[in-house]
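The records we work with from here on pair a chain with its fold. Here is one such record, which you should read through line by line:
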Amino acid sequence: MAYPGYGGGFGIPGMPMQLGQPVPGTSLNLPPGGHQPHCPAYSDSYTDVSMWSYFTAVAGQDGGVDAEELQRCLTQSGISGTYSPFSLETCRIMIAMLDRDYTGKMGFNEFKELWAALNAWKQNFMAVDQDRSGTVEHHELSQAIAVMGYRLSPQTLTAIVKRYSKNGRIFFDDYVACCVKLRALTDFFRRRDHLQQGFVNFIYQDFLQGTMTI
């Protein structure tokens, strides 16, 4: 079974994305002092050094970032652009997506991985949100999911759309939450599908651990 790629380039394998790459046609227009001085503003020129500085500005003494710290940092960074900031619940599942040791926190390498994924998902969302309303319609979400490389049945797509739509529209925060869960659950399944055939056997506790944390 060919699993979808995710991360850079709308999640399509072989299309790398630079960390912090801006979306064409957008501008944050942050006023001077419009962000906390200890948390750098969203930028298109992040390096490992600057990302490390960015991460340590919000990380706790244990060197990790929890959901509340992540929400505060993403809001201050302006990565969501003109869209509404990420909710705490979305930040919780962002943590869970990359929390492979189940600590409830995100380390630096995981933070960089998330940053790249968020940029890719934002580009994908803006590609279908052509009227810049901050929402997409049902068929546009299905289109965005297909662009990321997922090959889902119409029944599965319908269930996903119903889960993440509000009054017939999907907001950016809900779209990102959908992307996070798709990636996390696909990765959970793929790691157990050793023959890459699309079939696995779960024990009950393993299934709960993989799904209840997302």
The chain is about 50% helix and 0% strand. Confidence is low (pLDDT under 50) at residues 5-45. Residues 108-128 form the longest helix (21 residues). Residues 31 and 41 are 11 Å apart (CA to CA).
